[in-house]
Design a protein that fits this description.
By secondary structure, the protein is of the alpha/beta class. The protein has one domain: Spore Coat Polysaccharide Biosynthesis Protein SpsA, Chain A (Alpha-Beta Complex), CATH 3.90.550.10. Helix content is about 25%, strand content about 30%. A nine-stranded mixed β-sheet has the order 5-4-1-6-11-8-12-10-9, sandwiched between helices. Strands 2-3 form a two-stranded antiparallel ribbon. The chain has a two-stranded antiparallel ribbon with strand order 7-13. The two termini are about 30 Å apart.
């Protein structure tokens, strides 16, 4: 299974750490986030990978060139960020006709990715995407989900003041390429996957709970939490 690792973000909330380091190369326990993703996913026979770059791209390129994964990574530079959905749309030919994994590579995530893949393979008819979920202690900062008893995502409340629960979108997905047949992609291609694409897919998304570790490395506080795990 191919995987797109979204790695072009600036990480402005994580400054001053990201003044000189792209967010995807910030280290947890001495290992860059991007290296953790490539190592873990490769261990589950997931790959090859497409990685988009934007902020401090030369540092990401240098890391990939010196890594053991250089032969299975395609780097795509975006002079202007296309957005999470825009990157997917722009690289649909690379994706091809098989399900692919879409990952926000600035998250720290440890789980059984093989089980995640098998869950998607066993999805019921009509499902076009499997979304990884996790329990969050800060639901007001996340996309909180409304999930039916049979495990289908029916609603998402993005960063609201009084969220109705604590089960959140982990921003790790397995996606069927048939999403490109939906109306959202037919006219002006969308830019944001969470804000524009997911609302169009509600009722067609299966939830899969990550019972391991998931931490959004978005702020100095969350970065400290990841280091303490």
């Amino acid at each position: 299974m191919k995987a797109i690792l979204l790695a072009g973000g600036i990480g402005s909330r994580l400054r001053p750490i990201t003044d000189t380091i792209p967010k995807c190369l910030v280290s947890v326990h001495g290992q860059p986030l991007l290296d953790i993703w490539l190592q873990k996913l490769s261990g589950y026979k997931i790959g090859p990978f497409l990685i988009n770059t934007h902020y401090l791209p030369k540092k990401v390129e240098r890391y990939v060139q010196q890594s053991p994964y250089k032969d299975v990574v395609t780097l795509v530079h975006e002079p202007q960020l296309l957005g999470t959905a825009g990157t997917v749309w722009a690289n649909r030919e690379w994706i091809g006709s098989e399900p692919f994994m879409l990952v926000h590579a600035d998250n720290y995530c440890l789980c059984d990715f093989g089980c995640f893949v098998k869950s998607h393979q066993k999805k019921p008819p009509g499902i076009v995407m499997t979304m990884m979920t996790f329990e969050t202690s800060t639901p007001e900062t996340c996309g909180i989900l409304g999930i039916s008893e049979d495990g289908i995502v029916q609603a998402m409340h993005e960063k609201v003041e009084d969220p109705p629960g604590n089960i959140a979108n982990a921003a790790v997905y397995i996606v069927n390429p048939e999403i490109f047949d939906f109306a959202i992609f037919k006219l002006t291609p969308p830019t944001d996957f969470s804000a524009e694409v997911i609302p169009e897919l509600l009722g067609k998304i299966k939830a899969w709970q990550n019972s391991g570790i998931h931490e959004d490395i978005g702020t100095p506080e969350s970065y400290r939490r990841a280091q303490e795990l």
